[in-house]
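Problem 12. The chain below contains 150 residues. Write out its predicted structure in token notation.
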Amino acid sequence: MERLSAYGLDADAGERLNFGDVTILILASAEATGGAFTLFEEVPPLADTPLHVHVHENEDELFYVLDGEHVFHVGDEEFRTGRGGLVFAPRGVPHGQRRVVPGSGRLLVLTAPAGLEGFFRELAAAQDAGTLGPDAYAGASERHGITWLG
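Solution.
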């Protein structure tokens, strides 16, 4: 087993990925964690969208609210939580979230195992190439085991 190196970042450092009205800041990637987990922040301002329920085939997802109020739907449960709140969405369980105040709030998201950053990297590459659209989202979703339900 390969031994990992220590890893640290300064504030606001990381891999910044932009696509559409979304900015994702990758804080710990598969490369940094030996595939154990990915840690990223959704960076505001974010264009708020309706609740997009989806299922991850490959990753469990843990949401930690840094700022604002958020409503999470996980399976048949609803969690309304603010700063310091935590919600866990196991792989295979439909889930989604929305901001109570559109465009506001910050989330820190941990996924395990690592790999979800590849989805965001594909969308950022499509944005850079001028091909971001439904086909780019569908292809990236399929390759990363994400099924959109609504």
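Discussion. The chain has a mean pLDDT of 92. Students who got a different answer should revisit the alignment rule from Section 12.3.
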